[in-house]
Amino acid sequence: MVGLGPKPPLPRKGTGTLDNLPKDLKKEIEHLERLFTVDGAKLKEITDHFVNELEKGLSVQGGSIPMNPTWVMSFPDGNETGTYLALDMGGTNLRVCQVTLTETKSEFDIIQSKYRMPEELKTGDAEELWEYIADCLMQFIETHHGDPTKLDKLPLGFTFSYPATQNYIDEGILQRWTKGFDIAGVEGHNVVPMFEAALQRRGVPIKLTALINDTTGTLIASAYTDPKMRIGCIFGTGCNAAYMENCGSIPKLAHMNLPPDMPMAINCEWGAFDNEHKVLPRTPYDVIIDKDSPRPGQQSFEKMVAGLYLGEIFRLVLVDLHDNQEIKIFAGQDIAKLRKAYSLDSSFLSAIEEDPFENLSETADLFQSKLGLKPTAPELELIRRTAELIGTRAARLSACGVAAISKKKGYKECHVGADGSVFNKYPNFKARGAQALREILDWPEKADPKEDDPIEILAAEDGSGVGAALIAALTMQRIKQGNMHGILHPENFKTTEPLPA
Asked: Of 36, 281, 312, 330, which has the highest C-beta tally within 10 A?
C-alpha cells in the first residue's frame, strides 16, 4: 500500500476549531500542511536514496554519510562481568557512570552523576573543554572511591558522540563538530591525546580503554538485554544510527584483509544524509536554519528531524507569519522574545502537542509565560497544527533511515533500540514513526491492533553508560584472547584490568 501521509487530527469541538478559523489563517494552515506533509511515496523515494548513500559510505570513494567503522566486533552474550567507568559527552550534559556487569546474565548495576555542559565551552578553547571534563571525572572518583592518589588507573569507556574516524578503538579523529559545538583546533585531530593530557595534568587515575559513539553504545547495550536487537538509533539533540555489518561488505577496509564474515559495528552518522539536497523535501524554513548554522551545507537530515532544530523551525514559521502583513498573528504585540534564535526547544513543541484542553489553555499559558504573547483562539489552533506538522514530519523522516538499514541488510523482522529525548518524550513520535515504516515497507494491515510490527522501534537501554562499559569489557576480552584487529593504538598495547566487581 502507498500511504497518503499523516491524516490531520480530528477537529476539537467547541470554538476555535479548524473549521471555524478565519479564512486567512485557514489558508496559512493549508499552506503549511503542503510544505510539511511527507506522503508514503516520497518516504519510499527517500529510503531508496538512503540505501544507496549507506552503500556509498562503505565504499572506497565514500559519500556524505561517513559510515565509520568502530572496531566493536561482536555483540555481548550477556555473560560479561566486571566494573567499569563510562563518560558520556553529549550535547547538553556530561555524565559519569560506574557500571557493574553482574554475575546474573544480562543484568547490571549503575551509579551516575550528571554535570551541565556550559554553553561557553561549546565555542571556546579546546584545552578548557578537556580540563572541565577532567575536573568532573575527578569529582566523581573522589566521591565514590576516595583518595585518587591511592588508586590504580581505572578503565574507562568514553562516549564521544560526534563523527570521528577510528583506526583503533582507543582513537577518535574528529571529522566535524555537531550539536552546536564549534571549537577550533580539534577537527581533523585525535581527541584521545588531548583528553589524556588533561587527565594527566589533573592527576585523574583513569585509562581510556575504548572511545565509542553513543549510537554504537545504544546498539550494544540494547543487544545485551534483547537478542532480537539489530539497529541502535538516537533521536535526541542530534540523530544517528549504528548496526552490524560484515567486514566483507565494507570495501574501504578491504586492504586490511579482515575475515569477510567478521562483524563490525558501523556508526553511520546519518545526520549528514542528503547534504547534496537531492531528495529531502526542504522548506524555506529548513533553508534558513542551514544557512544560519555554524556548518552550512552539513547535517541536512539532522536539521530536519533532530530535537535541536524542531523548536527553531517552529519559531521561524511563527515569525514569518507575524511579519506577513496579510496574516498579522500576534497583531499589536511585541514579539522580541520570539525573534531570539533557538529560544524554543523541542520540549516547547511537546508541551503544545500534549495540551489536553479544547481551548488550548495550557498552550496559551505557555506563550504568555515564555514569550509574553497572548494568542487568540484561532491563533492557538494554528500554533497547535504547526507543532503537529513539524513533529510528524520529523518522525516520518526518521523512519526512512531505519527502513534503509533494514532493506540493505535484508531484515524482515528485528528490534531497533532508540534513545534520545525526542524518541522518549515527544508525543506520538514512536507511533508516527511506526506508521511511516508500515508505509515504506508495505506491511499488510494488522489483524489485531495489539500485534507487534515485524520491525519494531523500542526504547533502548542506556547506550552511553552501560553500552560504553560493555564495549570496554568486550575490548579487554578480545585483548586477552589475542585478537588485536583494530584494538588499541600501537602505543597502548598494555592491558588495563577492570575494577574488582
From this structure: 36
453 is catalytic: no
Distance CA 465, CA 299 (A): 25
Residue 294 has what pLDDT? 82
Q: Are residues 165 and 282 in the same domain?
A: no
Per the listing, cell 565514500 goes with 62
C-alpha 255/C-alpha 281 separation (Å) is 38
Nearest alpha-carbon partner for 283 in 35, 474, 467, 83 = 35
Choice among 88, 170, 214, 419 that is catalytic: 214
Per DSSP, what are the bridge partners of residue 418?
Answer: 233, 459
Which distant-in-sequence residues (6+ apart) come within 8 Å of 158 by Cβ? 86, 87, 89, 195, 208, 210, 211, 212, 468
Question: In sequence order, what are the residues at sequence separation of 6 or more whose Cβ sits closer than 8 angstroms to the Cβ of residue 88?
Answer: 94, 95, 96, 97, 159, 161, 214, 464, 465, 468
Residue 479 in grid coordinates: 585483548
Q: Walk across the sheet containing 206-212 and list its strands.
A: 108-116, 93-101, 82-89, 154-160, 206-212
pLDDT averaged over the chain? 90
Assess whether 30 and 102 both reside in one domain: no
Could you tell me which of 209, 190, 181, 203 has the C-alpha nearest to residue 134? 203
Question: Angle at the Cα of 125 (from 122 to 130), degrees rounded to 5?
Answer: 80
For residue 476, pLDDT over 90 is answered with no
Q: How far is CA 451 from the centre of its chain?
A: 28
Helix (H, G, I), strand (E, B) or coil at 455: strand
The answer to the question of residue 194 being in a domain is: yes
Model confidence at 179, pLDDT cuts 50, 70, 90, reads confident
Q: Are residues 468 and 446 in the same domain?
A: no
Active site residue 464: no
What's the half-sphere exposure (Cβ side, CA atoms, 13 Å) at 244?
A: 18
195/293 same-domain check: no
Q: What is the mean pLDDT of residues 22-36?
A: 93
Q: Is 161 a catalytic residue?
A: yes
CB neighbour class for 377 (10 Å; exposed up to 12, middle 13-18, buried from 19) = middle
Q: Please identify which of the residues 64, 88, 95, 161 carries the catalytic annotation.
A: 161
Close Cβ partners of 451 (under 8 Å, ≥ 6 residues apart): none
- Give the CATH number for residue 91: 3.30.420.40
Host domain of residue 118: 77-225+462-492
Write the pLDDT tens digit of every residue in 73-116.
999 988 888 888 999 987 788 999 999 988 888 888 999 999 99
Of the candidates 64, 95, 176, 286, the residue annotated as catalytic is 176
